[in-house]
Amino acid sequence: MAMTLNLEIAKGIRLQDIKNALMGVEYSDLSEMESELSVVLPNTNASMSAKTNLEDSTVLTENLEDTGWSVGLRAYFDVDITVPNLFDDVKKIVFNLSNQTSFEFALSFQYETLYAKKGSNGLDLSKDF
């Protein structure tokens, strides 16, 4: 069984920033095109896909619609819920993004349950993450 986590990152982010955030995470099958990137995260039986060519740059995560930033990249993590420590790789990527870039972002489940948010006050994580 899988669940999909949605990552929305502010405009200005590049696919290279996402690749840099993979530092310290085991990955395979990296595929990159001009505005899309996908990778498999074998340790947690997960995958990630990201794209920058968005038709809608509105923040979709509930209660964050008025954040003052527009989305420049959307990424999707398909996570295997049967694996122990299922969020480990996603957490590493989120921490790396937070430490390596200044871009605001939100990580949620179905744009409803907020797991992580980086704003002007730094990174906030949900206790469930």
**End-to-end distance:** 18 Å
| Coarse structural class | mainly beta
Number of strands: 8
Helix content: 10-25%
Which CATH architecture is right? 2-Layer Sandwich
Biggest sheet, open or closed, and with what strands and sense? 8 strands, antiparallel
Q: Which CATH class is shown?
A: Alpha Beta
Q: Uncertain spans, ≥5 residues at pLDDT below 50?
A: none
Query: Count the helices. How many?
Result: 2
CATH topology (level 3) name: TATA-Binding Protein
Q: How many distinct domains? A: 1
Mean pLDDT: 95
Shape: globular
Can you write the helix and strand succession as a string? EHEEEEHEEE
Strand content: 35-45%
Radius of gyration: 13 Å
Spatial sequence of strands, sheet with the most strands: 2-3-4-5-1-6-7-8
What does this structure look like?
This protein is mainly β. The protein has a single domain, classed as TATA-Binding Protein. It contains 2 helices and 8 strands; from the N terminus they run E-H-E-E-E-E-H-E-E-E. The chain has helices spanning 15-20, 88-100; strands at 2-10, 28-32, 36-41, 46-51, 71-80, 105-109, 113-119, 122-125. It has an 8-stranded antiparallel β-sheet, covered by helices on one side. A hairpin with a 2-residue loop joins strand 7 (113-119) and strand 8. The longest helix has 13 residues, at 88-100. It starts with a strand and ends with a strand. The mean pLDDT is 95.
